[in-house]
Design brief:
about 180 residues; alpha+beta; Arc Repressor Mutant, subunit A; 2 domains; two-stranded antiparallel ribbon; DNA-binding response regulator; DNA binding; DNA-binding
Length: about 180
């Protein structure tokens, strides 16, 4: 028996924003419809105004990058919520950042401010954790993974155990499920 997972916004009032890098398009799923970000009514993006107004560093960076509030909100939506996953970006007053494979991640002034680390069960995942998860669910051996992460094998073993404990999982299959839920695969 197979089961079908629906993205947030397909059957409920939640909002899922996602960026299609190949097409340079920001899209959204809301009310069972897939639409361009620009088609969202202003009330659906009001939470972005609240984020900008409540986070001083984010506001400063976005104002430096873009003079228009509309452009600021679009960039915030792209950077912080641009990944497509099974956790709603916004629902009932709560928002959750997504993993977004940005090529500028480590060289961007807005890194860690405009974009945010994703969380799983309250545990924030740093970019290193995201990379490690992607490698750990692959067919690669631990020695190769440790090399690719540029850490000694012993340190890798300790790190992997701490990561599994933090995510409250114990198997590679559970890690693959977490990666799927978070949109890392």
């Amino acid at each position: 028996m197979t089961s079908t997972r629906l993205y947030p916004g397909m059957r409920d009032g939640s909002l899922e924003i996602f960026y299609i890098k190949e097409e340079n398009r920001l899209m959204a799923i809301k009310g069972g419809r897939v639409l361009g970000y620009e088609e969202l009514p202003p009330e659906d993006t009001k939470f972005l105004d609240h984020i900008i107004d409540s986070e001083h560093a984010t506001k400063e960076i976005l104002e430096e990058w873009f003079p228009s509030r509309i452009e600021q909100k679009r960039k915030l939506a792209e950077c912080r919520f641009g990944g497509l996953n099974f956790t709603p970006d916004y629902m009932n007053g709560t928002h959750a950042p997504d993993s977004f494979d940005c090529p500028l991640k480590d060289n961007c002034k807005g890194f860690g401010k405009v974009c945010k680390n994703i969380e799983y069960k309250g545990f924030p995942l740093a970019p290193f954790d995201e990379k490690a998860i992607s490698l750990l669910i692959s067919a690669k051996k631990n020695t190769v993974i440790a090399e690719e992460l540029k850490i000694p094998l012993g340190s890798f073993e300790v790190y992997r155990t701490k990561l599994y404990n933090s995510l409250r999982i114990s198997t590679k299959q559970e890690l693959a499920s977490v990666a799927f839920i978070l949109g890392l695969i």
